[in-house]
Write a structure and sequence with these properties.
With 285 residues, this protein is α/β, with parallel strands linked by helices. The chain has one domain. It has 15 helices and 8 strands. A 6-stranded mixed β-sheet has the order 6-4-7-2-1-8, sandwiched between helices. The protein has a two-stranded antiparallel sheet with strand order 3-5.
Amino acid sequence: MKNVLLLALLFVSCKSYEQKAGNKTLLWKVTGPGIGKPSYLYGTIHVMCADDIVITDRLKAKFYAAQKLYLELDLDDPKTMADAMAGMMMKNGVTLQQLLPKAKYDSIADNFKKLAGMPLAMVSSIQPILAEAAIYPGLLGCTGEAWEQKFMQLAKARKMDIKGLESTKDQLDVIDSIPYQVQADMLAKSLMDIDSLRISFKHLLDVYKKKDLDSLDILMNDDPDFGNYEAIMIDKRNAKWIPEIITQAKLEPTFFAFGAGHLGGEKGVINMLRKRGYTIAPVEY
């Protein structure tokens, strides 16, 4: 059921780490060897109600202390979207109708249309994990927006460079590594009970808004489907990001904003940077 919470392009999964009750935060300062001025890490969620995305004065000050913005992808590059559109389709003409029994497909098709406002057939050739993104507006019950959009607006206002920690191909390769049948089963599981889905989604958003990464950990580790793919969806990507984060932080102050699930855990960005000798400190905002 919680699959939908995982897959706004892999927005969150957390493991426990040093987070005391008074240190609930999504903003972390990076200092250490070779870093002249601090850089910052910020844990995002890729879709929530626009009114809930609030850039406080303190957060804005930390953002503008940086010289450039790094997201998971360079969303300012038109090629990023073009590459994403080109890689969304299932290969060899596979469709969702072929992957699910007719009765199950018909059942989730009704629920999909209620949430997405369009027939499931319109996205039946798209990889199910990506097709699932279409239901978020219906779950939110509001105009959806992403933290990334807000940070890009701030960056453009200051003419800051916007870059990506990975390419569109990198993210699509992760999704491609999950068999289509598994993706289809995950989508069907999410859509079988809309009421439960809404409750789960709202609960996760509430926890995120409280900046409670430990509670997010409990929610996400409770998902059996995600656990099978955590290594490729989170851990391996984190390991590839670390050298780039270090390099850019040494060059100039940088604001890194990516899914909150990449922050915590033994193989999370925070711990991996600490193992390299860097100080990662929580920042209230």
